[in-house]
Amino acid sequence: MTDKTPEPLSPPPYRSLRVVLDWYLTPYHAPLIVARERNLYDQENLDVTLITPADPSVAAKLVAAQRAELALTSQLQLHLLVKQNLPLIRVGALVPLPLATLLTRRNAGIERLSQLKGKTVGYVHEGPARIWLDAMLKDQSISLSDITLQHVDFGLISALTNKEVDAVIGTMRHVDRRQLAQQGIVVNEFMVDESDLPAYDELIVVANRNVLSRHRRDIGRFFNAVEKATLWLINHPEQGWELVRKAEPGIDTPANAQAWPDVLRYLALRPITLQRQRYQRLETYLLRRGLIETATSARRLAVDIDGELFQDIPSPQG
Known about the structure:
The chain has helices at 30-37, 40-43, 59-64, 75-83, 126-136, 156-161, 176-181, 212-235, 237-247, 254-266, 276-288, 298-301; strands at residues 15-20, 46-51, 70-73, 88-95, 100-105, 120-123, 148-151, 167-172, 187-191, 203-208. The longest helix is centred in the last third of the chain and has 24 residues, at 212-235. It has a five-stranded mixed sheet. Strands 7-6-8-5-9 form a five-stranded mixed sheet. The protein is an alpha/beta fold and 318 residues long. It is globular and about 80 Å long.
């Protein structure tokens, strides 16, 4: 017998994940940034690329076309995109609570939602905007037909600032109001979740349902890193802000610094946790309000990547 030193074990190869953001980087993307800056993706043998889309409407569509593995969107948008037969499914969430607000300039004379009659409201995604406004106006003396909707792409804040619109829908709670205040613009803020719209996940991660099995382990490792990053942020909020603002100088604004403690309260501590009844409840609500024509099974909309066999996920007709 010979005493031979064993060959050193080669580390497993890195796996690439392209993650398309829903928007330019904001404080609500902090777990993704921290996971990168603290090398948590590396520890999971992942090479993660965060991609800012040129158009906020294309993120999930890039995943549907298999041009990226993951994308950020909202639960509301997912329900509508699945109706377009896009093979998308929710695999996790960064923000499991509604964030959206409607903002009006204080000097525009809109103190009540009913005063939106005849006004122009700017939006980024038309489908969610209609869902939000339908819920908010349900008990008012006006309806969606009394409002003009205007697409403003990434320019929600600038459209309101420049008086291109009278109000904007879909702004981020805690952040946009403060940003406007620091520009000298005082606003009235109406919360979407004060309507009877069921609670929903504001910021989710979607994958392509058709190739989900192929990426299951990588997605699980991705969320391991994101969860560790989130817990670190909760335990080290001041240090977390320093790390995020230095890594992404575009986030380093007085408004974001002021909003930071509120932002941390909204982050999902366990991003892969799935409340499937929330998806079924919203689907039922949309059907009852006439906002969709047919219902989709909650198992078609969202999956627990830790606990389900992907081949058992029903077809879109299920």
